[in-house]
Amino acid sequence: MLSQSQLQIINELRSEQYNLSYEDFRRTWLLFDPCEGGSTDVENVENCIRELLSNVQVESFSPYKEVLAEILRGNSHASVINVLDIATLLPTSADMFIKYYDADNDSETSSVDFLRIWREHDLDANGALDKIETSELVSKIVRGIKEKYEESYGLKQRKFEVNPALLNNFVHELFIIGDADKNGLIELRELAAILNVEKNFLDICPKKLQQKQLNEIFAHYDKDGSGSVEGPEFLAFVRDVIRIDDKPLSRLTRKESDVNAEELELAGSMIMGFVDQDNDGKLDKQEMGVVMQKKPPKLIKNQTAFIRLQRSFDQEENQ
Prior knowledge:
Helices cover 58% and strands 3% of the residues.
């Protein structure tokens, strides 16, 4: 967090009277980050700030330059300055967070958040995201990153307005990279690769669970502390159950081995059929323990493998 004097100066610079356009920021930033890695050496901080502020119509940028350099030096990691830190402290548009969202150092997505995001944006519940749904998803993710950086500094939030053309171009590139089967849709396993979802939490669990370990597992998925696992929490647990003992997956290969929406729904129904004795559509800790001890995962994995095989036959017939 910034001191009161630093906050006053930075909030003044980020007020509505000043604006650093996406084009000006990007053109200047490339002088210090020509490879577009999302960071620059801390030794460049003063020259970088001076060049960036030259695009902002302020009477004198000396006080801003001094405060910005002080803040960024104190917040630097491994002698580099992150582009999103600079973009947050300057009066820049949200477009910078579209272009450089990968520069977010905490970009790994929890499995529960991943399934919550999926449910919120698969509006027609067809098991895939079209380009309109994906655009809404990207806007929300970028808004969240921007707000997180502003909150980390204790800054007032600037308006979130993204250039539609830039957003469309970003989504187009996302489909080129993420739409592995080129069907014009982003499926669940493809989105998992794009969002860099955390590793399978259940892979670290021993085959014979103690109560303490079961408590840790349950707490991992019961994000809201309600005492039951339901909705996205339950789906995140199911997704990890299916993938128990799978080999570690990289971001590039995860989309080939991860779970799709149809497989997830089937596995969820099977698990509820095994253990949900009170038919409330939720898992309590005892029921989760039954899932982990009885090992229905093996049957579930066989069923989902059959679905994948059937889908591959269907695709070959349609070609």
